[in-house]
Specification:
4-stranded antiparallel β-sheet, membrane, 25% strand, Beta-lactamase Inhibitory Protein, Chain:B, domain 1, alpha+beta, 4 strands
């Protein structure tokens, strides 16, 4: 009788644990965005020689603030969907004498980037 009770408890435990894997696809999981969402059209507005304020107006305040390298701003974006792969994007802006000098990262450099804005 004791063996039957042990087997019944074990069977219930196995069925209970396997039910978690069956229910998981039915559970709604939210998307979790973090950082600065930047699109290529935002990057296309950047021009060499823009001030820090102008870059901040176009892209927003950078997520990463480096006290030791104030001439570089880093914009990070991470999207963890409820299902699927995590997306990570990084975009760097480099200043010389408080003016935009170069950009790099996961976006294409605009064709008009080297043409400064007219004051």
């Amino acid at each position: 009788m004791w063996y039957v009770m042990k087997a019944l408890i074990l069977a219930i435990a196995v069925v209970s644990l396997s039910a978690c894997s069956l229910i998981d696809p039915l559970v709604y999981k939210i998307n979790i965005p973090q950082g600065n969402f930047i699109e290529q059209r935002d990057v296309d507005e950047l021009r060499v020689g823009m001030s820090r304020e102008q870059v901040k107006f176009v892209l927003g305040t950078p997520v990463v603030d480096n006290s030791f390298r104030n001439e570089d701003w880093v914009y990070m974006y991470r999207m963890k969907p409820g299902r699927g792969d995590v997306t990570v994007r990084e975009f760097r802006v480099h200043f010389d004498d408080d003016l935009l000098a170069d950009i790099s990262g996961d976006f294409d450099k605009p064709e008009q980037f080297d043409v400064p804005l007219i004051d």
